[in-house]
Amino acid sequence: MRVKKAIEGLEGVTKVDVSLENKQAVVEFDEGKTDVEKIKAVVKETGYEPV
């Protein structure tokens, strides 16, 4: 899954579960190393619209 690999590539991301069927991603991350805005940017770069 392209979006999962992209999110996993961010520094500080520790766990990613993606369900394309449910249009949902659950991301665990270290707030000291990344933030929600960076994750949303990566999701958008892969062609999906973050909410």
TrEMBL record:
Source superkingdom: Archaea
InterPro entries attached to this UniProt entry: HMA_dom, HMA_dom_sf, MerP/CopZ
GO molecular function: metal ion binding
Domain HMA: 1-51
Full protein name: Mercury ion binding protein
Species assigned in the record: Methanosarcina lacustris Z-7289
